[in-house]
Write a structure and sequence with these properties.
mainly alpha, 5 helices, about 0% strand, transmembrane helix, membrane, transmembrane
């Protein structure tokens, strides 16, 4: 049972270490998040499909961040009491109630096993809870990338159109200058 407790504690720590996967997803989205938000809030792009994609993106992304925050909030992991506590404090407590040494040993074993079971159950529940937060945050983060890519495509198209207009304006400016020939 001690091995199982250690395995759950190790699995719990492994789930927390995988938080970096979420950070990578959030960083990739964060690179173009401000320009896309500017397009929406400055009303530079008024396409209803982009606005709908942006709303879906924010709902999914906010949900992902919510579960990521729940993932990193620490929980009290179930640890075992030091065995000396059983042989000193708890033994003294039960010796006053029970006269027989054999019954006392059985009671100590039962209380130690019940603590093992409790610790195992606490660690199992923490692991299941944390892994479910991680899975939800990862899935929602990856799903939020789809509508974000749609918004990003609209942003890139807008920038290409602006660049094309700028090139045309520059060409017209320079074409209006008279070219003088030297003789």
């Amino acid at each position: 049972m001690r091995r199982e407790i250690a395995e759950y504690i190790s699995a719990y720590q492994f789930v927390l270490q995988r938080f970096t996967d979420l950070v990578i997803i959030y960083s990739a989205i964060g690179i173009f998040l401000i320009p896309v938000c500017q397009d929406i809030f400055k009303r530079e792009i008024l396409n209803s499909f982009m606005i709908g994609s942006f709303i879906v993106f924010w709902l999914l992304f906010a949900s992902s961040v919510y579960y990521a925050i729940r993932l990193i909030i620490p929980y009290a992991v179930g640890y075992l009491t030091v065995p000396s506590v059983y042989y000193k404090n708890i033994r003294l407590k039960y010796e006053q109630m029970v006269g027989s040494e054999e019954v006392l040993d059985i009671i100590l074993q039962i209380s130690y096993i019940s603590e093992l079971e409790f610790s195992l159950e606490v660690n199992r529940l923490i692991y299941l809870r944390k892994s479910s937060f991680y899975i939800r945050a990862l899935r929602l983060g990856l799903l939020s990338a789809v509508p974000f890519i749609v918004c990003l495509i609209f942003h890139i198209i807008k920038n290409e159109q602006n660049a094309q207009v700028s090139r045309e304006v520059e060409t017209k400016k320079f074409s209006n200058f008279p070219i003088q020939k030297k003789n």
